[in-house]
Amino acid sequence: MKTRTKQPGANARPARATRAVVYPAFTQTGPDSPAEGTRPMYLYLRLSKYHKDKADAIERQRLDLTRKLAAEGGWTVMGEYIDNDSASVSAAKNRKGWRQLNQDIQAGTVPAVAFWKLDRTNRIAAKCIEWIGQCQRSGVYLVSHQDSADELNTATAGAKLVTGIKALLAEVETDSMSERQLASKRHLAEAGFHHGGTPPLGWMAGPRVVDEFGRSGVRLVPHPVEHPALKDAVDMVLAGKSLAQIARYWSDQYGITAAAGGPVYEATVYRSLVSPRMIGYRMRQVPEHQRGVKLDLLDYIARDASGEPVIAQEPVCDRATWLRVRRLLEEAKTSRTRRPWGSHEWLLTGLLYCQCGERLYGHQKYRKRASGERVPVFAYRCQANKVRGPGNCSGGCTIDAVKGEAFVLGWFFAQITDDALAAARARRRAARADVGINEVLSQLDEARAERDVLLSKQGTGEYRGAMVTVLLSLIADAQRRVDGFQRRLDAMELDEFPIEDGPALIASWKERAITEKRTYLRRMIHRIDALPGNAPTEERLRITPVE
């Protein structure tokens, strides 16, 4: 049976750059034991930059060292440790050959090491001198093609002085090159020029131009396929589409795929949409990602001499729209609400409220039939007594999920008539005219910050006894303001109501993702109040439509 491999799309993204030649940390190139009358020698070969190196420098270092050792005589080359990493900060992490060499030195299996020049081992003076001292204490003999063996292997003050000066000069050279490169990149960033590497998704390198100060460089210009795809992705996020749906849409409509031919990774879509590049900003010195550390990318944009953000390329959308997109993506990523599990979708999460003021969340349990079979039962249940302590909710409200969702959907489908949709559009226009989106966003952020500060004070010594009740009321008030601003923002997110054709929406309802379904419900429903008791579900649910 033949296996079919998926071919890349017409606009496949490039794969991650790889080394031209990949070396193992250690390779045994000589015999198991040195020739009679000789001592074992191990080579350390390093190239600072691996991009398109073709291993030429590694071969040159190997040839120079083997010739030198052969001329001296008395040595048998047993193996070699090789690094062809970059000359950046990441080199400290990627130098597997260097780590393996030092482990073998500590284990006592390497009696002698040959390298082309001292700065191939380390370009930081203090660490270089420390390593030479460790080798001397371990009895490891050092040979360099460019440096004197006496300076490396003697413990005299003069030898240490010469070795230290050379190591310091190597470090100064590295610092000087780094300063020149940083200055060059700073000017490129200020001018809005691209300084190499894979262009970000949505743009490509344009022609070389000269700015008003005489600096020449290349700016990014919109990619004919990827830039329109990003615009469509913005609309899809605002309509409640998932990242997976966006990736599939890109593959089907634009032929944008990963290098192997499958849909673009969701993480790639996410990083592209939350990047300030979407509004034309030029990124500058973004720190390396660390698990658990959240960065605000707006803190790492290039600015001109007056401190204003540099607009380096044509934006995909305006700032207000991008902030809404970023907020929606971050909320979906960090949501603390319960996620769907099993075979049930929790459609009403965030809409159902108990009489105590708390939301109802999905709860799954099992019920035994007369036959002994265990069947799952899904319900929405008030969590106030569990989260805030006993006595906070006297009703203990629980709503059967299947019956409750059927009732709400029945009401929703009955509302999406032409007249109801026209009224909803009018309400949206009135909401947009009330206040600017940026102002609502600012107020929402302030309310969330206040709520988070209050939540952090729970369980501390600042609020004790009767003050705990005061703290809880402050938290509840902050949460109410957050909910109010959120509802106002939801009403302003699209210029037009997203439901254009009610019957078409009803016909395609089952095929839509849970996020889309929730988005549509929120366009029509402000909240659903649930009453406790054993009355029929339709009598216990009170739907408040969006005003």
From TrEMBL:
Which one Pfam family would you cite for this protein? Answer: Resolvase
Recombinase domain location: 200-335
Kindly give the Gene3D superfamilies that the UniProt entry links to this protein.
Putative Large Serine Recombinase, Chain B, Domain 2 (3.90.1750.20), Resolvase, N-terminal catalytic domain (3.40.50.1390)
Recorded source organism is Brevibacterium picturae
Q: Where is the signal peptide?
A: none
Q: What is this protein called?
A: Recombinase domain-containing protein
TM spans (from-to): none
Residue spans making up a coiled coil are 437-495
Q: InterPro entries per the record?
A: DNA_bind_recomb_sf (IPR038109), DNA_bind_recombinase_dom (IPR011109), Resolv_N (IPR006119), Resolvase-like_N_sf (IPR036162), SSR_resolvase (IPR050639), Zn_ribbon_recom_dom (IPR025827)
Q: Per UniProt, which keywords does this protein have? A: Coiled coil
